[in-house]
Design brief:
Layout (H helix, E strand, L loop, with lengths): L2 H11 L12 E4 L9 E7 L2 H9 L4 E6 L11 H12 L3 E4 L2 H5 L5 H8 L6 E6 L2 E13 L1 H7 L9 E4 L5 E6 L8 H6 L4 E4 L7 H7 L2 E4 L7 H15 L2 E4 L7
Parallel strand pairs: 2-3, 2-11, 3-4, 8-9, 9-10
Antiparallel strand pairs: 1-4, 5-6, 6-8, 7-10
Length: 252
């Protein structure tokens, strides 16, 4: 299919227009109008390594969670120039989806983490700009922080940090991927046993300890691989598009 057709499908499926997001969601760099999108690479970040990886895999489009444009004009120079030029020279389209890919009830980062933990039901959680972007619910059985981190594939080498200041056996969790450390207060207000996010915050350490709250920071990158992988599976299953995950880990 052509890029415009795929854009229409993704905008509808991911409810792109419903979110007040600083990210320029949708097509950020187009390919030639006559090109067929037969292979899509998915990655967390639109960095040079992901772009090069997509090209090496023969992809026609790179779908990412973190794109290149964030709410204000940016000069096409330096590193930004190199990234854009590489895509234009290789006719590689770039598609970004930020908050909609956190919040989606099936394909989103947070819903996918809930499913990875075996949660059959989960409710919207985590208000951001008037919209819920996370999920909360009850685990299928009690788990320790370490068990939860293992099920989610979080590794200390790539940002995992556990603050086990609450119940040892956890029944209820709230999940918001990425840099949502401050939203742990919403988890406290909801009476949850544990909050799962991407990044930790020094300022919260003593507050969590004194409040008796568990927090698992899985690493920003590690908490946001779920959505792009799910979109890849969706495109392959529903439209027969060849997809590949470009894994370019960060230590944060």
């Amino acid at each position: 299919m052509k890029l415009g057709e795929l854009d229409t499908i993704l905008r509808k499926q991911l409810s792109v227009e419903a979110f007040d997001d600083i990210s320029l969601n949708g097509v950020q760099v187009a390919c030639s109008s006559e090109k067929e999108i037969r292979k899509v690479a998915v990655a967390v970040d639109a960095c040079q390594a992901s772009i090069d990886g997509a090209i090496a895999e023969g992809a026609d489009m790179l779908f990412v969670h973190h794109g290149l444009f964030w709410g204000k004009p940016i000069a096409i120079s330096g590193i930004h120039y190199n990234r854009v030029k590489t895509m234009l020279d290789n006719d590689l389209a770039l598609y970004a989806c930020h908050l909609p890919l956190d919040a989606h009830p099936v394909l989103g980062n947070n819903a996918q983490m809930a499913m990875s933990l075996g949660m059959k039901e989960y409710d919207p959680f985590g208000l951001y700009h008037g919209q819920y972007i996370g999920y909360k619910g009850r685990l299928p059985f009690e788990m320790t922080c370490e068990k939860i981190a293992k099920l989610l594939g979080f590794s200390p080498a790539f940002g995992l940090n556990i603050l086990p200041f609450g119940k040892e056996e956890i029944s209820t969790v709230g999940i918001i991927s990425g840099g949502a450390a401050e939203d742990v207060f919403q988890a406290m207000d909801a009476g949850l046993d544990c909050f799962i996010t991407g990044e930790c915050s020094h300022e919260l350490y003593h507050t969590l300890r004194e409040s008796g709250m568990n927090m698992i920071s899985g690493g920003h990158y590690q908490s946001e691989v779920f959505g792009v992988k799910a979109v890849g599976r969706y495109l392959a299953k529903e439209f027969g598009i060849d997809t590949v995950f470009i894994d370019r880990k960060t230590a944060l």
